[in-house]
Design brief:
This protein is of the alpha/beta class. Helix content is 36%, strand content 17%.
Length: 426
């Protein structure tokens, strides 16, 4: 077999490995040369039902034999109508309107456009460490890495940033971080963007690229209170954390908070490009028909894949499995931490787990990189995240079994030992 030729592939994509994949099943990928890889990235949270779940495969095959595509401005397709009803049945009941698109960034753009029309206000507040996408507006809202924004200025205006309560990075207790960050959010509204000009505050209920950071208890409720106080919409970005990933259908459901708009994507289609927003119906009273849209949103193939995905989540109780396997994963990492003090923090919910590597309080990005390379050498695929690139990110498919989790833990433990022997705690 001749070596893979990447000469015509754009170099703008970053990539963790040069693995070329020919097939996948469940939690495993097979390379073109027959190597079996335990995939704990799940396409960065996309392959929620694993690779090629038979029920999703069958739904797509059946739909492909009937209808590839219709454009929503011209005609309705029955899968789209079925899907919007199904989505409305699993999201919080007050979010009864559904708009469908293709990518997470498109969903964020739709949420901001709706918020601006609904409020008549121009500005948006995001949080430090956020990731909302790479289109121009979503990029302006993203603060997890400078690389996402480098040399793209000028960026869209009207985006303001408040600190996220990342207690470990702030050197505070969770209670202190919560109080400090809510005070700072209120300060932004007094010093940078007046409430009369602020349409929305956009929040990730678990930060993704920022490091899989779970906000302290009371923080989301505090943001909701500020929104209510000033007449600002609360947008919950559940693109990575939604659809059972956190051990609940949506991660914000660990609180009692009710967002006004919620973005959805990634795990809702088992690999097909589909995303959307759900929102309170009264918000669209001023959303002018035709002022937002898109060619491919709600196409029958993607809708069929999403319908089958949600059905599998219900039938196989993937919400419960994510919670159980996530607990097993965190317990296993905690056992490794007893003899590996560089495991400075283990956090997340469900099968959305971050392991922060630290020497005391010092971040260890070189060690993180070395450990991931050792994981690849042992046929385990993991990636990193975090504002200092020192967090190992665990995103197994939601169908992961105890055997899958234990296999991943064993490989990771060996990789951690090997990484430490190569670079040490530096």
């Amino acid at each position: 077999m001749k070596p893979a030729d990447f000469s015509h592939v754009s170099s703008v994509w970053t990539h963790s490995t040069d693995l070329v994949i020919s097939s996948g099943k469940g939690c495993h990928l097979t390379t073109v040369d027959g190597r079996q890889i335990l995939d704990f990235t799940a396409g960065i949270g996309v392959n929620s039902t694993g690779h090629c779940h038979p029920k999703v495969v069958e739904a797509v095959r059946e739909q492909a034999g009937k209808l590839f595509f219709t454009q929503i401005n011209c005609v309705w397709n029955e899968r789209l109508l079925e899907l919007t009803d199904t989505i409305a049945s699993v999201v919080p009941e007050h979010l009864s309107k559904v708009f469908l698109s293709n990518s997470g960034a498109e969903a964020v753009e739709a949420a901001v456009k709706l918020a601006k029309h609904a409020t008549g206000k121009p500005n948006v507040i995001v949080l430090s460490g956020s990731f909302h996408g790479r289109t121009h507006l979503a990029m302006a809202m993203t603060t997890s890495k400078t690389n996402y924004r480098l040399k793209y200025a000028p960026l869209p205006a009207g985006i303001y940033t408040a600190p996220f309560p990342y207690a470990l990075a702030l050197g505070m207790t969770e209670e202190e971080a919560c109080r400090f960050c809510l005070d700072q959010l209120d300060l932004v509204l007094h010093t940078q963007t007046d409430p009369s000009e602020t349409a929305a505050i956009v929040v990730e209920p678990i930060q993704g690229e920022g490091g899989y950071v779970v906000p302290p208890a009371g923080y989301l409720e505090g943001v909701r209170k500020i929104c209510d106080q000033y007449g600002i919409l609360m947008v919950m970005d559940e693109i990575q954390s939604g659809f059972c990933r956190s051990g609940k259908w949506f991660a914000h459901q660990y609180s009692d908070v009710k967002p006004d708009i919620m973005t959805i994507a990634k795990g809702m289609g088992s690999g097909f490009p589909i995303s959307g927003i759900v929102y309170r119906p009264e918000l669209e009273k001023t959303w002018i028909p035709g002022s937002h849209g898109g060619t491919y949103g709600g196409g029958p193939l993607a809708a069929a894949a999403s319908l089958a995905t949600i059905a599998v989540m219900k039938e196989e109780k993937l919400e419960e499995n994510a919670a159980a396997m996530g607990a097993r994963l965190k317990d296993g990492i905690a056992s490794l931490a007893k003899t590996n003090p560089v495991i400075g923090d283990i956090r997340g919910r469900g099968l959305m787990v971050g392991v922060e590597l630290l020497d005391g309080k010092k971040p260890l990005p070189k060690l993180c990189s070395a450990v991931l390379a050792e994981c690849y050498a042992r046929d385990l695929l993991l990636i990193s995240c975090g504002i200092r690139k020192n967090v190992v990110r665990w995103i197994p498919p939601l169908v992961a079994t105890p055997a899958d989790i234990d296999e991943g833990l064993a490989k990771f433990g060996d990789a951690l030992t090997a990484g430490l022997s190569k670079v040490g705690a530096t």
